[in-house]
Specification:
Pfam families: LIP. This is Triacylglycerol lipase. One of its GO terms (molecular function) is triacylglycerol lipase activity. This protein has 435 residues and is an alpha/beta fold. The chain has helices spanning 16-39, 143-146, 167-175, 199-213, 231-241, 263-270, 278-289, 291-297, 303-312, 317-324, 339-343, 347-356, 380-392, 413-421, 423-432, and strands at 4-5, 72-77, 90-100, 106-116, 127-131, 151-154, 160-163, 179-183, 224-229, 251-257, 367-372, 397-402. Helix content is 36%, strand content 17%. Helix 4 packs across helix 5 and helix 7 (278-289) crosses helix 8. It is globular, with a radius of gyration of 20 Å. The two termini are 28 Å apart.
Amino acid sequence: MGYELLDDTVVIRSGNMHATWRTLSPLLHQGGAAVTRRVLGISPRPGRTAGFENVPDFGAVIRTPDLAHGTLVNAASLKVLGARGEPNPASSYRFEYITGDSQGRAITATGAVLFSAQPWTRGPRPVIAMAPSTQGVAQHCDPSHTCAIGLNFFYRRPFDAIVAYELPVILWFLAHGMDVVFIDYPRDPSAGIQYYCDSIAAAKSLFDAVLASWHLGLSPEAPLGLWGFSQGGGATGWAAQLHDYAPELHPRAAVVGAPPVDLFSVLKTVDGGLLTGVIAYAIAGLGASAPELFNEIMPVLNSRGKSDVLSNITTCAGGSLLRSRYSTTSTWTNRGEPLADILDDLPRVVAEFEKQKLGQIAPTIPVLLWGSRNDDVLPIEPIRELRDQWSAKGASLTWHESQVPRVPGRTGLNHFGPYFKNLEKYSGWLMDHLV
């Protein structure tokens, strides 16, 4: 066995109880107050477009052929829920920077950087570069937008909901005294569609965001750790494999949580479950990444399929649950077969999925790879195969397989539950590599 097992012994770390209070207390207080003000009409409700009062707007994505990746373009103060004052204050900024599209061409993208005000006495203050999990691919679902909103429901059609479920994780790292950079993921400038499924572009975007954050006060000497789960796990997995993309950066370790290793198996697993709508994200993201993929995929879809894809990509994950819950993609296709089976016959799609597959390159930094035995979104077997591939290539690998009992109903709880249950364990491993 060429990997270590993460110790499952329960360890109570010094400061974790206080960090939990600093994370949850202001989040519940500030988040509850924000929702109450909106319900009572004291504060305006967020819209589906940019420009909400607490979120700076930098306009649409554009191509920038004359600017280098990692360039800071714009920045403004961001009011992050749970970090607006004691007991977990942070100086926060939403910023626009240069990264690359699926073909590597320079485009603008957005992200956020949060500077913790907690004391840090153990050398340089570490930085967590975070690739968030899927919250939806519409722009009003971007994490640097939703972190200032927390929770919001849209009662007019199309029904939708903003749920910033990565916010507790961001605040958790801040409560420990670490700075955090996170991304919104790159988008196609023509259609504004996120390059969903493109973990390579996401990994490069994460590195570019860190470089851009240097101009906002992030220290180039700060110990850098990578953190990602689900969609973000694919991004951090590729970031750990990209040895030469940003030679100025020297990440010390990466947590790669439940990554989408085999995209065909992911599509088959979620099809017919509560999270069927994420398949629409994948279809739209593939079509946006290259005209050849768009032309290969679109003839497969019938009118209902096209309508459902369009509906899902204009809402957040909450809206997708309402629109496509427990539907099957066989109703989306002209052949009446599930999309995964049809896409498996399309050569350009197969080539793209193979290109995105983790495991072909060994990470050169220590990696904690984890998955969940009963995951009903990201199946465990391809993640086990990735474990074996990386360890066979000599990677410094730690493995953990969550044994959380299965919750029936294909609700996604078997996917998200272990993430939050083991947050202390997984973040502790990363912190140990940064101090």
